[in-house]
Specification:
single chain; about 350 residues; alpha/beta; D-Maltodextrin-Binding Protein, domain 2; 2 domains; 13 helices; globular
Length: about 350
């Protein structure tokens, strides 16, 4: 009997303790239920850090663009996906960065379109002279970043060499021509000694309109313009201001011959290795950065043109008839055909069709 009583007493104590334990945890359970929120798409994912870089000048659009993408993707994911961003050539020049991204030593590169041609021949589509000159930023953005055959084919060209295209930043701002000759009409370009990049397509364009292109090291350009060794040079407005060309040039001609455009790409294997939620976050960060930067590009262009004019230069602008006249020149038509058929597999035709709507 004593043993039975002891057993019953023990069971009673255990039941009492269990009841007390349930009572103590109940408020905590209720509190958790009241404050519980749906788990975000990144909560269960491991932290990932990517390395990104550019080689632009300090404060240039490419740097601001890349750093905004890095900031935005960290914000979107709550710090789960981050980009260790290195601007201003910290990790090398454009070609070095693209090689590092291709091999996976770094992940992301922001740069202008011209250096990419050495890795992706189809990027010579941006060498088509004055291809974008008659279009506004919204139209160009819809083609470069939208859902169309041109964008699909260019994205495939990126992937064929180990890259994934994330997007293009532009807002219908261009490379312009500064000169000591008033380039009011097409005939004014005859025998114009103009410094250009050492790009055969660019040089062929200037030759086709009667000018005499002369590649020259950047460090020598200011003094060559000052001494009259060359008559002209071509660059975006902010570059012209940075070089103080208003001191040695009289005219700022809006030839709009090459689109001022930055691309952002990532190593294809790295992109595919990311969880789909991280891929979506990175895509969103790039889209947000483009939306943020585009108005700034227009302001940078307008402000720097005004600085050049205030510095004594005369602004020369053209209507669409001027661009059409140049685009219909036999030499320019031949250049278009050569680039389109021999270099970019018909991508130029798809670009022009997409732009025209």
């Amino acid at each position: 009997m004593k043993k039975l009583f002891a057993l019953l007493l023990t069971l009673a104590m255990l039941f009492s303790l269990a009841a007390c334990g349930q009572k103590e945890t109940q408020p905590s359970d209720n509190q958790g239920s009241d404050s519980q929120t749906e788990a975000g798409p990144y909560d269960a994912l491991p932290k990932v850090e990517l390395v990104g870089a550019d080689s632009t000048g300090k404060g240039a659009a490419g740097q601001i663009f890349g750093e905004y993408v890095a900031s935005r993707v960290e914000e979107i994911t709550g710090g789960k996906l981050t980009i260790d961003y290195h601007p201003n050539g910290d990790l090398g020049g454009d070609a070095d960065l693209l090689r590092q991204a291709q091999t996976g030593d770094i992940a992301i590169v922001v740069c202008q379109t011209a250096p990419v041609v050495s890795f992706i021949p189809e990027m010579a589509v941006f060498d088509l002279p004055m291809a974008f000159a008659k279009y506004d930023g919204d139209t160009i953005d819809a083609v470069l970043n939208g859902d169309n055959d041109f964008h699909d084919d260019l994205s495939a060209a990126y992937e064929a060499v180990g890259f994934h295209l994330l997007g293009f930043l532009q807002n219908a701002t261009y490379r312009l021509t500064t000169a000591n000759v008033n380039l009011a009409t097409l005939s004014d370009f005859n025998h114009l000694q103009i410094r250009t990049m050492e790009n055969p397509n660019h040089m062929a364009f200037w030759t086709a309109i009667g000018a005499e292109p002369t590649p020259l090291a950047w460090a020598e350009v200011y003094f060559a313009l000052q001494s009259g060794t060359i008559d002209a040079q071509e660059n975006a407005a902010d570059t012209c201001v940075g070089a103080n060309f208003q001191e040695v040039q009289k005219y700022l001609a809006c030839t709009n011959h090459i689109l001022y455009c930055n691309q952002i790409c990532i190593n294809e294997e790295v992109y595919e290795s990311l969880d789909p939620a991280y891929q979506a976050a990175l895509d969103q960060a790039v889209a947000d950065a483009i939306a943020y930067m585009r108005p700034q590009l227009e302001k940078i262009d307008t402000d720097n043109k005004q600085i050049l004019v205030d510095g004594g230069m005369t602004l020369v602008e053209y209507d669409n008839d001027f661009y059409d006249t140049i685009l219909n020149l036999d030499g320019v038509q031949a250049l278009y055909k050569n680039i389109d058929e021999q270099q970019i597999n018909g991508l130029g035709t798809k670009l022009m069709n997409a732009l025209a709507g």
